[in-house]
């Protein structure tokens, strides 16, 4: 097989089909149409004189030649991404783009004003924000920096612990303002509860509610902390919510001290190759310090 017959674009096609098992999935990954992926795969197989994928009703499966090229593509992708990070690491300018990923709750309750201040101070640095509860890969440059609560940050990433996300029980102020607070340990046993549904994936919170029998009284489940906050304002029940998000909410009242078992470290995470990029370093220093300041002075937990 003539090595010059294989181009990087070809390898991307092979890897995308191998990862997705279909032309449509590969097209979505690469931003190409189904017809374009089919045409390029057909041309590649004709040029190389081999079949790379077996077609069936269940999808596309690799032939031995396809497995070989897919493995090569994975190695090349790793090398290319590594080169991009190393080259980016030599950038000392306070300009360029930072792609940041965080959750909707953190952005709404904590980060929005901090990022606004950063933009005013460094107008030449462009921010791209991916708000998602899904984890973006920093190794694949889906994001440069992640701001997330986690008890086990990925070992291959560089990180700064900038504080702790604390949780407490809240209820509608109109319903609870006449009650002596904090509530006694048994006062919540017979309350209506709001809680996370299974898609939210908060195992710690679900386990805490189960251990106290609160799940039996939870008949309103929502897959978003912001949604739970809104429902709690309407008097639909009490709920465990982040203190940074809920303390400023004048319609809600904190009913208990923060729950020690649910406290989670908050991390700023970055790929090690990007730590020396000047704009990344400035972002980590300034945003990290502002987040730490807000959380450390957080409403006297």
From TrEMBL:
Residues 6-63 form the HTH lysR-type domain. SUPFAM superfamilies: Periplasmic binding protein-like II (SSF53850), Winged helix' DNA-binding domain (SSF46785). It comes from the Bacteria. Pfam families: HTH_1 (PF00126), LysR_substrate (PF03466). Keywords: DNA-binding, Transcription, Transcription regulation. Belongs to the LysR transcriptional regulatory family. This is LysR family transcriptional regulator. It comes from Microbulbifer halophilus.
